[in-house]
Amino acid sequence: MASTTSTFKRWTAAITPYLLYLITIVTLGPLQFGFHLAELNAPETVIRCIDQPSLLTGPSLPTCIPMTSAQFSVVSSIYTVGGLLGALTSGPLATKYGRVLPMRLGALFFIVGPVLSSLAPSITVIAIGRFISGIGAGAAIVVVPIYISEISPKESKGLFGALTQITINVGILASQVLGYFLSYGNMWRVVLAVAGGIAVVQGLGLVGVCESPDWLVTMGKTDKAKRTLERIRGGDIQEEVGKWGTAQEGQEEYDSLLHGEENHQSNPSTKRSSEASIGILKVIVHPDHYRAIIAVIGVMLAQQLCGINSVIMYSVSFLRDLLPTTAGLITIGVGALNLVMTIACAPLSDRLGRKTCLLLSIAGMGSMSLVLGFALLFGVQILAAVATLLIVASFAVGLGPIPFILANELVGPEAVGATQSLALSANWIATFLVAQFFPILRVTLDQGRVFFLFAGLAVVFFVFVLWWVPETRGKNDADEVWGRDRRED
After folding, report:
1. Coil, strand, or helix at residue 37?
2. Distance CA 23, CA 162 (A)
3. Which one, 45, 102, 330, 423, has least CB within 10 Å?
4. What residues contact residue 485 under an 8 Å CB cut-off, 6+ apart?
5. Beta bridge partners of residue 62, listed in sequence order
6. pLDDT score recorded for residue 56
7. 78-96 pLDDT, tens per residue?
8. How far apart are CA 310 and CA 451, in angstroms?
9. What is the DSSP letter of 143?
């Protein structure tokens, strides 16, 4: 009991108002990612002129934009193409120039994209707007998990890491609720515009966001890193500074900084500060990182190819035939359950371990995809609704939050930007495949059978995680995770 109380006091002492401010502002990026991901789900039939005719309400704003199912798939999936571009470019930017610059650029894209989409008179303009929003989303999903992991206390990295997925789910739920109530006339444009307002708030808030201490140390700026960490923690940082290198090096660094010795760049006192950042090509072939690359990319692919975005993006369309009057409400239920379960399961990765949570999540999604497939094939309404909700609940246990924190735990800070870019690029490609081809496969495979494909993929990814992905809970760095001895130069 005394140990638990001590741990709790240590945990709460490290959570300062400034840390909460940082996390609140930066997680508005993932929130917008989730918002844009689901914003077209509920108002699809209104936007496509299925439920209403196209009427001009102004010089260039029709009440809807006529488009076929294939055209709508392109408008939906082009968001992921922008996301891929954002993911590929933001990682190297974060490695070279720090974590804050890509987040600020992402906020700018998040402003421009919704302006174009909400004022779009044609398919082309709404697609361009979603592509631009996707660039911002790609940057946010790469950089924000890295930043949160680097500023969070060790005892709560899993909990704070889950905030990426939690805020994604807040965005999804917000867009589903707005879409449910504003799917008429020209009000669907309001749904698309709301994210732009959120981006303005984030852009202003990022003015007060500091750079990551871990990145500063990697760049050899140990004096600035120490001052930044003190500002975030609001108290003693000796233990954390000591872990920037060996215990002796860390103590020397801490003592010298306390005595105001500012010039450390010519003779860095920590191992990490002397390590050069590694680009995408080098990290792929680096002997210390290639196994982590495979692990992180595999988990990212699992996150998407187990079928979550078939539910987030298209639940109204595949449930409408079976549940015509309640499909929209079930979609809101999906968003709400996703949020509640993600919050409830946030501490699990720190208690059970990352790997255990991933395996439970994949098993749950695979089995429920099988159930949903049969429910749609045989027209069992209640079973279809329950299975849809349980797919989302299973996702929240592990595949939702954990992939976003693995890159920072499986490689060192010099390679985390490139690793996260590669992983998120794979994630965006998989998201594109689901967004673009799920509607086609749903028709080709007779509705429910497409979910048997997701169930089969879940089996493959379960075996992969069991065999290849190491446990990272409670480990200090990537060397400890992979059982390596740190090489001294």
Report:
1. helix
2. 11
3. 45
4. 479
5. 56
6. 61
7. 999 999 899 888 888 888 8
8. 9
9. H
